[in-house]
Prior knowledge:
By secondary structure, chain A is an all-alpha fold. In chain A, 69% of the residues lie in helices and 1% in strands. Chain A has a two-stranded antiparallel sheet. Chain A starts with a helix and ends in a 5-residue tail after the last helix. The model of chain A is unreliable at 1-18 (pLDDT under 50). Chain B is α+β, with helices and mostly antiparallel strands. In chain B, strand 6 and strand 7 form a beta hairpin. In chain B, helix 7 crosses helix 14, helix 12 (299-307) packs across helix 13 and helix 20 (511-531) packs across helix 22. Residues 17-49 of chain B have low confidence and may be disordered. Classes of the chains: A mainly alpha, B alpha+beta. Chain A binds chain B through residues 64, 66-72, 94, 138, 153, 156, 160-162, 181, 183-184, 271-273, 275-276, 286-288, 290-295, and chain B through 6, 99-100, 103-104, 106-109, 123, 126-129, 223, 231-232, 236, 292-293, 295-298, 300-301, 368, 507-508, 512-513, 515-516, 520, 523-524, 527-528, 531. Chain B: InterPro entries: Bact_solute-bd_prot1 (IPR050490), SBP (IPR006059). Chain B: Residues 27-50 are annotated as: Disordered. Chain B: Residues 1-25 form the signal peptide. Chain B: This is Extracellular solute-binding protein.
Amino acid sequence: METLSPNAAANESVTPAPQKKRGRGAWKTILQQKYLYLMSVPFIIWLFVFNYLPLMGWTMAFQNYKPAKGSYLEFSEQKWVGLENFIKLFQDDRFYLVLRNTLAMSVMGIIAGFVIPIAFAIFLNELKGKFFKRTVQTVSYLPHFVSWVVVAGIVTKMLSIEGGVVNDILMGLGFINEPIQFMAKGEWFWGIVTASDVWKETGWNAIIYLAAIAGIDKELYEAARVDGAGRFRQMWNITLPGIRTTISVLLIMSIGHLIGIGFEKQFQLSNSLVTDYSEVLDLYALEYGIKISRFSYGTAISIFTSVVSILLLLTANGVMKKLTKESIM
Amino acid sequence: MKWKNPKSLATLMLATALLIGGCSGGNNEPSNSGNTGKTGSNSGNEQAAEDNSPITFTFFGADASPNWNNMQDEVGKYITEKTGVTIQAEFDVGAGGGENKIQLMAASGEVPDFIFAKGNLSNLVDAGLIIDLAPLIEEHAPNLKKIYSENMNRLKYSNEDQSIYQIVTNMGVGQQYFDAGGGFEIQQRVLKEFGYPEIRTVKDFEDILKKYVEKYPETDGQPTIPLTLNADDWRIMISVTNPAFLATGAPDDGEYYVNPETYEAQLHYKRPEEKEYFRWLNHMYAEGLLDKDTFVQKDDQYKAKIASGRVLGLIDQEWGYQDAENALKTAGKDEYTYAHFPVTLTEEYVDHSFQSAGVDGAGIAITTAAEDPVRLIKFLDWLASDEGQVLRNWGIEGKHYTVDENGQRVIPQEIQDRKVNDATNFAKETGIGQYRTFSAWYGDGVKDSTGNYYTTNFPEQIVAGYTEAEKETLAAYNATTWKDLFPGEDEFPAKEWGALYNMPVPTDGDYQVIYQKTQDIIRKRIPEAILTSPENFDKVYDDFLAELDKAGAKEMEAEYTELVKKRVSLFTGKEIQ
């Protein structure tokens, strides 16, 4: 969708063709721009082969799929079962539990993942020393390149009851008398995941906002200063509106990903005591789908995820369009 | 050094990445030469046996093999030289098990030439990716035939499908155990401190740990941990739940307990004795003797703790903490290594660790992806020959062992020292022990035609492998090996149903779903029962059992009972109702 829209936009702007000649005019334009079209062909083929052809696999969700003799799919031999897999899915209590976990963690992730990097970028932008600024920026995005396996190790160690920094600090300050086993408390799991995500991604996510802020016309700030605006007023009335477009585009896109948050962090950080809070949709698809050869069931889960994602994306886009006149489609 | 701008740093990193990538690319070169030495299946035996042209076979192993050195070790080079075969191997990582990887293979149909699938072979069989080895063995593999001989029946897949899909390689045929690696473990220093008291029941175990930690609350400046268990993923079965049946006198039948009279199977947690075992663990936790991190820590943290030497007691199998113990040995901290005891809940139970299941295990299977299965089975057969077995177990003559004037194989002292004290590097450099599961082998205690044992584990060698501290402990208990402390194989009849954790289960229908659900419940509720307050334990445990039945455990057990009965009749030829 996103790939195609710039093309369409370009078309419109280049040829404000009168209504009656439209059919002919369009052909003419295409002919005129044939090289441009030819250049886009490989990408359309690529998109089709890698993004649309695999969707044929969705048929699995309506079958009782068995991996066939050596080859990918002997279509005619599969047994069709209609919506049975979806019915089973919606009847499973565990599904609602993991759906709750998924949504909770991704909503928390979105809130923290927007507010903190934006604030960070704005404040960082206000700093004077160029060297200091650069260093802070580099240091802050480095954790992005650390794999979740390592991050999980660090987090577990920090929250450990024995020599864990967090417990040591809390005890040292006298907030608690006994170390807390953070990793064993299910209800804290969402918070721990969100916090480690913030630690890992804040710097990285701030990059795009810093770039957007750099694009704001300096004259606006000068004018504001002349009018007597202080630092915070400038941030509020110039910087924030200046990056509003970026924020809404990113927000719409991440709402599209709301339900498909992956499972890496949950998988790494979880343990048997907190599974009721840590299992997310993708893990559920792994445990109750692929791991026990229920490929059809796994596919049904992924179709559900995709459909919900598209709906969320369209809704978010529509709402944004209405509210701020900004959208990605 | 200061980086002038991010670009120069990035360039350097890129250059490094390319350099590393380039180097590792070089290692894969021989793989291009695959398939040049293709032999038709109809070519004569002797002619093909000499076919040593270079060939590469791809392989996946469901168990992690951290010391695998891409056949660049001494034994590996020798194998390639002799047979022309290079194994391009990939192993599962971390805690291993290979489940995820193998399921993906089943779904995509992309398999290596041969595979060690452990518990997940049936998925590949159902996907039609595994070939029947029976005709290949019959025609091309005299050595394999010799090793399995009367146990061929036990290699068959099921009553309905009597194909042989895998040869058992994770256990030696005719194995007699000389050493025990399981039971309950206690550090040598703890035993020494209290003059080597008798350790028979969990009470004895608890008391000695308690006394020691009270006396020495710190080890090398860090708090002493009386007992820790490993509950990371499937390791919870080995270290937390399996000991429940071992300590209450039942043999290992995976997640089930099978009644030897009626062959009725039930989830072993339902045995009332086991509830008492978990009550004891609950008590250990309440007393502060069980590590608070037990159900939170990961496999590597568990090992790191043990390697620090401050864990007094374990309930695990030696292979589960071997790496950590090796680290202790390398550091010269012998007194921190562990002794093994057949501890049971009370004295009325006997540890059944050594009840034999007969030949029944996981092993090597050949897939439909293998372009030349004949060459491959011949390679496996060569590994199973006397020459191959001695090579895999002993190494290269003149290098890793010598033959004395009486024709006895002897391991020189300096090699033996390295084997014990520098085990990791030794395995990487020499490759001894790295090729064990690639083909069939005779177990400990079987002698070859020269009158030597096939494996390096025979009583004298095992004793030679012990550290001084271990020998001291054993002497105090009037034993020469840990096995001497355990009830032996001859005290129990071999199980007619083999090893149930190897029994293929149906991959369609509800069985797998219910099993997965019960596993989820077990892995969640057992820790909960152990961590709850003692007065609450009964309620949590009873709820746990009720929850199992609610998830369909009864139906699952009934289905499993049927499978067990069928298996007994496949293995023994008995008719069972």
